Every structure is written in C-alpha cells, then in structure tokens.
Automatic annotation (TrEMBL):
The modification N6-lipoyllysine is found at K63. PROSITE patterns: BIOTINYL_LIPOYL. Residues 22-104 form the Lipoyl-binding domain. The glycine cleavage system is composed of four proteins: P, T, L and H. It comes from Sphingobacterium griseoflavum. InterPro entries: Biotin_lipoyl, GCV_H, GCV_H/Fam206, GCV_H_sub, Single_hybrid_motif. Its cofactor is (R)-lipoate. Keywords: Lipoyl. The glycine cleavage system catalyzes the degradation of glycine. The H protein shuttles the methylamine group of glycine from the P protein to the T protein. Binds 1 lipoyl cofactor covalently. Belongs to the GcvH family. It holds the Pfam family GCV_H. This is Glycine cleavage system H protein.
C-alpha cells in the first residue's frame, strides 16, 4: 500500500494535501482497497463550509456506501469532474487523478494536528 509522506491523514481514511490556503482531499489507498470497486461519488456540499469531522459526501462501492469526513474545517470549492464519468480513478489513482474535492481551509495550521504517513500506517496496521 502507498502512503505518501507529504500528505496528512485522518483516522477516517481521508488524505489532505495543502496548497497555500487551499487543499485537495481524497480517500487513502487503504480505504479504496477496503471499499472495493467504486461506482459513484456523491458530493453535494460545493460552496458550503463543512466543520471538521462532518460528512461532506459519500463514496458508493459495489457492496457498500461510505461517508466522507472533512479533515479540517473548510469550504468546498470544487469536485473532481473526472470522477463523475470515471469513479474508478479513486481506486486506480487515489492520490492523483482520483482526488475528490478541493477546499478553502478555514485554518491551514489545523492540518498539522492530523496524522503523518507513519502514524496513519500504524493506525491501519500496514
């Protein structure tokens, strides 16, 4: 499994990559493997401020639907259009083309409280 060191992680299996006062969020390689084949990603929070640990959308796999949780308080700016027509990108490239949303961070420093790659690896026993 892949756990890029430059990202931060949540215990709910989201990753976040900070880019100035914005960030990109997706689900981890571990999460996509656990879910199996992803068939649909539903995000209905564009333009909304979502509190830390609140649900910002769902990922639907063949066998289950899983909530997506906001790593830190943020406003959802955009959804990755590519995953509308190709949700399998979340499976094949979870840290690249399979990203889920772009957000404006309420407080970029809050990201520092999230898990490092090594801490997340320990969390999932990888």
């Amino acid at each position: 499994m892949n756990f890029p060191a430059e990202l931060k992680y949540t215990k709910d299996h989201e990753w976040i990559r900070v880019e100035g006062d914005e960030a990109v969020i997706g689900i981890t390689d571990f999460a996509q493997r656990e879910l199996g084949d992803i068939v649909f990603v539903d995000i209905n929070t564009v333009g909304e401020e979502v509190a830390e640990n609140e649900v910002f959308g769902t990922v639907e796999a063949v066998k289950t639907v899983s909530d997506l949780f906001m790593p830190v308080k943020s406003t959802v700016l955009a959804v990755n259009d590519a995953i509308d027509s190709s949700p399998e990108l979340v499976n094949t490239d979870p840290y690249g083309e399979g990203w889920i949303i772009r957000v404006k961070l309420a407080d970029a420093a809050a990201v520092e409280a999230l898990l490092s790659a090594d801490q997340y690896k320990a969390e999932v026993n990888a």
